[in-house]
Amino acid sequence: MYPEYFEVPRAVLQDDRLNAEEFKFIIQKFSNLEHSKLLTKDKWLLNQSDFAIENDLKQSLFNKKWLIKVNNDVYLKIPARFISDKKREVNYDQIGSQIAQRWDKYCQSFILTPLLLQKLLSFIEDGISEEVIIEVIKISSKRVEGNPANYIISMLNDYLNRAIYTIYDFKEEKQRMEEYEKRLQEINRKKERRDKEESFEDYYKKGYR
Known about the structure:
Blueprint: H1 10-14, H2 20-31, H3 35-40, E1 44-45, H4 55-63, E2 67-70, E3 73-76, H5 85-88, H6 97-106, H7 114-125, H8 130-143, H9 149-161, H10 167-205
Antiparallel strand pairs: 1-3, 2-3
């Protein structure tokens, strides 16, 4: 996904400002990361145990931008000087790139793993448009507490079964569901009014005035 990354980012080897201790610390932290997190994140949260280092080493890594502080959390991050313009400006014309972009917008608390992205791309191969997948991600992020991945896959499988492929199909389905919800609410309101009227009639029939 990102050619700059191998087992550790190439930038670690390119930064000749790093001394032996700094180099060792950074290599160790990147080596402990899950491969998916290395590919899908642009900064990596450090635990307190990860950060038990001497103050001089700590300050030097901050100065060299390998460590950054966000609120009270400390992150490992590749300095901007080592990130190519090509990587910063992701080509969102590529298939699946819009999915990755919207995932970061709507589901930023959860990692879009290469495996999940590949699964989502398989729905494009089955005929569902990328626009529809993005709409499903958006809906799922609002409806599901926690990681929405399983809900998204379930919805897309349902769309496949019902031949909802294009954004036009999706909008038709959405309008149909909105009309159904509106009709259901109207029926419930009428039922509530009827129940209320019947309770008043019973009240008067029993002689209460």
